[in-house]
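Quick review question:
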């Protein structure tokens, strides 16, 4: 799904969330006898943020699965066999062997996920434009609205709130990458 254009993803989920004609999600709730759950997912202030978050998560889930799968199959199977001989259960092998061995990959994917979440603009903007009210407003949609709703006659880089938010976002991303680099370099040099 991460190679599908975001406009197609937004249209797919808009049709799934639809109330008229009834979308797939509302049809499902109606079919299992939960008519009380049938709602206008994108127009309800209680469900709008979740409704725009699901397509973003769905879009990149496959990519993260491939990354984790590649990390797990690259591990040496003799370590698992030795743990099995010592009497370790599958759950213990997962918690005490596999996850510690791929901790750098986990950190990488968490960093990618966080920066992707900060970057997310297109699907929420296409689905709701930050509405209803500001229920699904994200930092990126707020910046877009502030950047293009101000008069060009004022000094753009000094007074525009979108530029201040962009500087803050860049600083937070740089701090996150620096912290991850320091942690990974410590683990390399300590061992």
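Suggested answer, residue by residue:
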């Amino acid at each position: 799904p991460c190679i599908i254009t975001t406009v197609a993803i937004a249209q797919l989920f808009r049709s799934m969330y639809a109330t008229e004609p009834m979308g797939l999600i509302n049809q499902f709730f109606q079919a299992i006898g939960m008519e009380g759950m049938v709602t206008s997912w994108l127009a309800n202030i209680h469900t709008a943020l979740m409704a725009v978050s699901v397509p973003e998560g769905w879009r990149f889930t496959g990519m993260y699965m491939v990354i984790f799968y590649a990390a797990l199959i690259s591990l040496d199977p003799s370590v698992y066999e030795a743990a099995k001989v010592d009497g370790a259960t599958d759950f213990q092998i997962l918690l005490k062997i596999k996850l510690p061995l791929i901790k750098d990959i986990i950190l990488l994917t968490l960093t990618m996920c966080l920066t992707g979440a900060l970057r997310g603009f297109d699907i929420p903007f296409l689905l709701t434009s930050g509405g209803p009210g500001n229920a699904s407003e994200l930092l990126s949609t707020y910046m877009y609205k502030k950047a293009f709703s101000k008069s060009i006659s004022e000094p753009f880089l000094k007074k525009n709130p979108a530029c201040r938010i962009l500087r803050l976002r860049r600083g937070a991303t740089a701090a996150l990458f620096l912290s991850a680099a320091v942690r990974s370099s410590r683990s390399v040099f300590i061992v």
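Why it works: The CA atoms of residues 37 and 164 lie 41 Å apart. Confidence is low (pLDDT under 50) at residues 152-156.
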